[in-house]
Amino acid sequence: MVILPLYDKDPLERDGVPYVTYGLIAVNILVFLFERTLSPAFDDTVEASFGFFATRLADEPLGGAFPAAATLLTYMFLHVGWMHIIGNMLFLWVFGDNIEDAMGHGRFLCFYLLCGIAAALAYMLPNPHSQVLLLGASGAIAGIVAAYLMLRPCAKIEVLVVVIPLAIDAYLVLGAWIAVQVWHILMNAQDGTAWWAHGGGILAGGLLVTVMRRREVPLFQCVHPVKLIRQIAGRGRGEPG
Predict the structure, then answer these.
(1) In a domain, 182, yes or no
(2) Distances (CA, A) of 165 to 93, 98, 162
(3) How far apart are CA 135 and CA 5, in angstroms?
(4) Number of domains the chain contains
(5) Using one digit for the tens of pLDDT, what is the confidence trace for 103-147?
């Protein structure tokens, strides 16, 4: 079954523009479009140089023309195809602005990059000398999904189930998504998807959001304060609850 998030119905608490979310989407798309202008052979060279290889980090973290340690960052901005980048950027578009709102611009950028780094390191765990290339923002975005679930579990998310749009609580949609990632890790799935990276991003996002959110932002907030004030005000005017 194909389930895609379209947008969430959880308004931002502040009136600021999520510049970092928009910037990350723009950079990812621009890099992807640039890759499409390259010849297949040169594109493979770019991905091999800036993508993440577990074995290269394990053996020569600071060696080579481009240090393997630096690929912990660069791999996040490379994608292998249209479906890969569209799926990742859709998740970032839907959920990123709320996490940026809860953390602030600078901390959100650090959060995103740290989740991506944690995802790559988790990818190494089952096979530290793997020569399979890791590309894409999925691990960082998995961290955003975990943070959103911990901050806004009861927010309504409009999702496309096959071809039918439905509004579903975040804890059902995102909880199911996380459960699928964990299930594939436990089953040691070998289908070309970096499940361990997703798991590392989820774990990092869940831990980091507890210390990187603004002090006044509570965890597991099921009633948005703006919505609650409006409900109370509406009842005070005799409007139906």
Answers:
(1) yes
(2) 17, 21, 8
(3) 22
(4) 1
(5) 999 999 999 999 999 999 999 999 898 999 999 999 999 999 999
Say how many CA atoms lie within 13 Å of 132 toward its Cβ.
Answer: 14
CATH of the domain at 34: 1.20.1540.10
CA-wise closest residue to 176 among 166, 167, 165, 168:
168
For residue 241, is it within any domain? no
15: which residues sit within 8 A by CB, 6+ positions away? none
In a domain, 64, yes or no: yes
- 116 vs 142: CA distance, rounded Å: 9
Residues of the domain holding 7: 3-236
Residue 111: inside a domain: yes
Write out pLDDT tens, residues 179-194: 999 999 998 878 778 9
Is the overall model pTM greater than 0.90, yes or no? Answer: no
Give the H or E element holding residue 231: helix 225-236
Cα 120 from Cα 130, distance rounded (Å): 12
- The Cα-based distances of 193 to 32, 162, 189 in angstroms read 19, 21, 8
Written as one string, the DSSP assignment of 182-206 is HHHHHTT--SS--HHHHHHHHHHHH
